Amino acid sequence: MAKFVNAATGRTDIFDLLSARKQLFAGNFQAAHAAAQQALKADPSAVEAVLIMVAIAVEHGNGPGAERLCAIAARTGHTSCWLAVLEARVALLKQDQERARERALAASTLGTDDPHIANQLGVALSRTGRHAEAVAPFRQAVDGVPDHADYRYNLAVALQFAGELEAAEAEFHALVALAPDHAKGWGALVQLADTPAPEWDERLARLFEETTEVEARLTLGHALARLAEGREEWDSSLEWLDRAKAAKAQEVAYARSFADALADAATAARKAGNFAPRPEGDERPIFIVGMPRSGTTLVERILSSHPRVRSVGELSDFAILLKQALKTPGQLVLEPALLEAAESAEDLSKVGAAYLDRVGQLAGETPHFIDKMPFNAFFTPAILRALPGARVICLRRSPFDVLFANYRQLFATGFSYYSYAYDFGDTAHFVACFERMADALEASLPPERFLPVRYEDVVADQRGQTERLLEFCGLEWDDACMEFHRNAQPVATASAVQVRSPIYASSVEKWRRYSDGAKRAIAELGQYGLRP
Q1: pLDDT tens for residues 302-331?
Q2: Which label site among 153, 295, 363, 480 has the fewest CB atoms less than 10 Å from its CB?
Q3: Domains of the chain
Q4: Distance from the Cα of residue 317 to its chain's centroid
Q5: Which residues pair with 423 in a beta bridge?
């Protein structure tokens, strides 16, 4: 604790940096910042005050400022879990996944006795793909601050990703008991619970009507749609989705020209050539791509059940490295300009080498690793050029089922790439653009390196399609691939629950269960030549 003279009042005020930290974690940034500044005036070497200012800069998205302050703290010789966590968060702001992972793991090794910092550590680990490691710090956060609803939500989600479904459901129940209006908690609980309580519809409908907050209405409306589906009230569920998404669709003002330009650029890039006709060199990378909700996670789980294969999750690393190398303007990574720049680039081998160096460390000594970022589909030509040993598996699924599956899915709202999913017509248009692009890639890329796989075929003939997948990847048969649902690796996707069960066929032709909805789908997709 330190004493400072208040120049305005002449009084001696006492500023305790521990109190400043409490103000910070309570979201009172102005008070925390003032206390940290006062502390630094009295003692320029007060590292705790610097860390508080770093955290405030990160919360406000000021990456450069936060990075400068981190460097100041590091130059003092200070080492702590909190500094490492803040360095990881700064790296995430810069889209530097490699640095973020390294600092998050360093923070995990150092450890902390502060539950608020433990929560931030869990978030950093989760956002860098270390979902299993995130459970312990999230548990520490909840144990330390049991009445913090968002900390409990984070723990529940981490447990779900780690496959601890009963524990996750218990945490979600505890969350909505603690915070009855927690929209994200209700949304997750409805999705996970086997037997929804009869009163949930009324409670959630009341919450939906009472709130004007766009994100909350979006989440609650999705939950109500899921409850209606559980009663097989298909068109009622679609009505809830329309109501839930309307305000968000207005807010994002999605432009269909973006999807057209993406598909055009990816289609044109297939003509760039320079594709090794068969895998050459480092054959570790296996990319699984496709539309979200098209079966990418299912195929990932089948292949990663093989003892010679490990999944490293959904990584943005290839696209980020490509953007850094080609220096296209703007913050977006998935953008037509980057695809066009990749097409005209003579040599992408440095991008491939950087990718192997970075992701290879995550995969360890495993002979093959899977990168399952669905929208890497748009980067397929660049991937095959940059990584001559890589193979790409592209999931295809009925565009009608993909349309409903994407419209039903509540994607992360912080990513503009999913903005198409707030309007039924926009979703149909995006699906049609993807179909057009995937058709072109399938017709022209070397079959030894690009394998289209239909979701419906995997469901109908798991054994035959598994043999086909293993042959394409140069792998021998292993019975474990037929029992993918026993795979203990974490799943951080919307399919985290489904892939813990054996293959089922109930999602095939699911779109036909809708009456008015099916007519809407036929009309929307029919504009682009897609018919049942």
Answers
A1: 999 999 999 999 999 999 999 999 999 988
A2: 480
A3: 256-526 (3.40.50.300)
A4: 13
A5: none
3-state secondary structure string across 243-278: HHHHHHHHHHCCCHHHHHHHHHHHHHHHHHCCCCCC
Q: Is the pLDDT of residue 171 over 60?
A: yes
User: How many other CB atoms are found less than 10 A from the CB of residue 194?
Assistant: 7
The distance between the two most distant Cα atoms of the chain, rounded to a whole number of Å, is 82
Range scoring the smallest mean pLDDT among 109-113, 128-132, 171-175, 353-357: 128-132
How buried is 96 (Cβ within 10 angstroms: 0-12 exposed, 13-18 middle, 19+ buried)? middle
Q: How far apart are CA 423 and CA 218, in angstroms?
A: 12
Burial letters 158-185, b for 16+ CB under 10 A, else e: bbbbbbbeebbbebbbbbbeebeebbbb
What's the number of CA atoms in the CB half-sphere (13 Å) around residue 27? 1
pLDDT at 366 over 60: yes
User: Which range has highest mean pLDDT (35-39, 303-307, 480-484)?
Assistant: 303-307
Nearest to 123 by CA among 143, 96, 103: 103
Q: 211 and 220 in contact (C-beta within 8 Å)?
A: yes
Burial status of residue 454 (CB atoms within 10 A of its CB: 0-12, 13-18, 19 or more):
middle
- Asked if residues 167 and 159 have their Cβ atoms less than 8 Å apart, the reply is yes
Q: Which two tokens stand for residue 260?
A: 């057209």
Q: How far apart are alpha carbons 188 and 220 in whole angstroms?
A: 10
For residue 9, pLDDT over 50 is answered with: no
pTM: 0.85
Between CA 126 and CA 122 the distance in angstroms is: 6
CA-to-CA dists, residue 380 to 64, 393, 437, angstroms: 32, 10, 11
Return the DSSP state at 511: G
Q: What's the CA gap between 176 and 141, in Å, rounded? A: 18
* H-state helical runs in 60-164: 63-75, 81-93, 97-110, 115-127, 131-144, 149-161
Amino acid identity for residue 230 in this structure: G
For the chain, the distance separating the N- and C-terminal CA atoms, rounded to the nearest angstrom, is 71
> Among the listed ranges 144-148, 369-373, 489-493, which one has the minimum average pLDDT value?
489-493
Distance CA 140, CA 119 (A): 8
Residue 111 falls in which region: left (phi positive, over 0), alpha (psi -120 to 50) or beta: left
Spatial distance between the Cα atoms of 63 and 318, rounded to a whole number of angstroms: 22
- From residue 51, how far is each of 3, 88, 418 by CA, in Å? 20, 13, 34
Four-residue CA torsion sign, 50, 53, 54, 55: positive
Distance in angstroms (rounded) separating the CA atoms of residues 38 and 286: 53
386-401 CB burial, b ≥16 within 10 A, e <16: bbbbbbbbbbbbbbbb
Looking at the DSSP bridge assignments, the partners of residue 371 are: 287
